[in-house]
Amino acid sequence: MIGPSTPASEIAVACGALGPSLVTATACASGSTAVAVARDLLTSGQCDIVLAGGTEACNTPLIATGFAQLGALSTRCDDPSTASRPFDRTRDGFVLGEAAAVLVLERARDAAACGRKPRALFAGCGSATDAHHPTAPHPEGRGVKEAIRAALADAALTHQDVDHVNAHGTSTLRGDAIEADAISTVLPGGPFVTSTKGALSHSLGAAGAVEAALTVLSLQHSLIPPTANLESPDPAFDLNLVTKAAANERINAALSTSVGFGWPQRRPGIPHPLTAPREQ
């Protein structure tokens, strides 16, 4: 019941899916990585239709204690409903949440042949590792910036084409600051930015899939949800944040960003597993 492959296996059995069945593990970016892998399975011809998403049930004492020890959780206890405050100057950490989301992906020509109208076109994706610290982001947001640039290049888009960003925006002090800098640097011009974690909290491995689905809905309905609890945007951020009410805007291209914890930190004196000398 606790095997990492269990969610994919259960879905495969329920749906009678006979193609590749696998689980991605890139921490809080796992849901987004799953959708990206699905695109690769389609373009390579291994699959005709792919169910891709993420699920997480993390509200346990052990998980909560671990994140609390890292100083990652909000300590705002007077009104828990306002504790998650992405990009707000008073943010102090994220709130653990549980969620699941699954997207159905197929090639455009196959959908057209079957008379199905797609909700959105998956134009491109990008990923990167900043190789800096197991939990702290690189001070200059190296990995986030490179991932956004890679996604734009893969989609053959420029920064001017992006109208909306569904940001990772967890409500942590450093995380939001690094992501805000990355977005304003790589996407100058002010695309509409929102973080749905203000309303939905942080569902860790499921978050990327949930936010990908919400980004599709924004494209479909030309509606960008506001960032809940964002009352005083951090003045240090050069972002066009959606606050208070949803924005009714035509969106031609949108970007969903996900950021996860990195490589485990090595202890002094212990060789890196990839560089350890071979036994003679």
Automatic annotation (TrEMBL):
PROSITE patterns from the UniProt entry: KS3_1 (PS00606), KS3_2 (PS52004)
Ketosynthase family 3 (KS3) domain span: 1-272
Keyword Acyltransferase carried by entry: yes
Domain of life, per lineage: Bacteria
Keyword Endoplasmic reticulum carried by entry: no
Key words, A-Z: Acyltransferase, Transferase
InterPro entries assigned to the protein according to its UniProt record, in alphabetical order: Beta-ketoacyl_synthase, Ketoacyl_synth_AS, Ketoacyl_synth_C, Ketoacyl_synth_N, PKS_Beta-ketoAc_synthase_dom, Thiolase-like
Family the entry assigns: Belongs to the thiolase-like superfamily. Beta-ketoacyl-ACP synthases family.
Protein name per the record: Ketosynthase family 3 (KS3) domain-containing protein
Organism field: Kitasatospora cystarginea
